[in-house]
Write a structure and sequence with these properties.
single chain, about 150 residues, alpha+beta, 3 helices, about 30% strand
């Protein structure tokens, strides 16, 4: 049985209201895989909530923009960025859990970290709190990774 995007939209409308009641501007949108989701864009990162197989799928992600912006020599900056890009797979395997994804964000000239977790439908009232906690933890991890990569 296939669930329509409209059914997901209706099911996620209360989540939008829950986030807004917690002071987080959230909105419904279609993601890059044509799934309905609730999104929130904050200074500290981004939050997406979707309907999963047995509950909510929560994605939080953030970037560390302009890692080498202070480097005046463009050739040296490109070399430093390349070193980070080739280091990412090893860091992914050695430091991060399976639900984390570390990438290089060309548009931000820095690393990007994403975390995905599955949550039961019963946490609907606590979703904003959980999402913010996860985003804070993600940013702490991002700061540690950035400091290791910039050595």
């Amino acid at each position: 049985m296939t669930v329509s995007i409209t059914e997901h939209q209706v099911a996620l409308n209360p989540v939008v209201q829950t986030f807004r009641a917690h002071g987080v501007y959230a909105y419904g949108t279609v993601d890059d895989e044509n799934r309905w989701c609730v999104a929130a864009d904050l200074e500290t990162g981004h939050i997406d909530v979707r309907i999963g197989l047995d509950g909510f799928e929560l994605d939080v992600w953030a970037t560390s923009p302009g890692m080498f912006v202070e480097e005046d020599n463009p050739r040296r900056r490109q070399a430093m960025e390349r070193l980070v890009r080739v280091s990412i797979p090893g860091i992914q395997r050695g430091y991060l859990d399976e639900n984390h994804l570390l990438t290089w964000a060309d548009d931000e000239a820095g690393i990007a970290l994403r975390k995905s977790i599955a949550l039961p439908f019963s946490v609907d009232a606590r979703l904003p709190e959980i999402a913010m906690e996860q985003l804070d933890e993600l940013n702490e991890t991002l700061t540690v990774l950035e400091s290791r990569l910039m050595r």
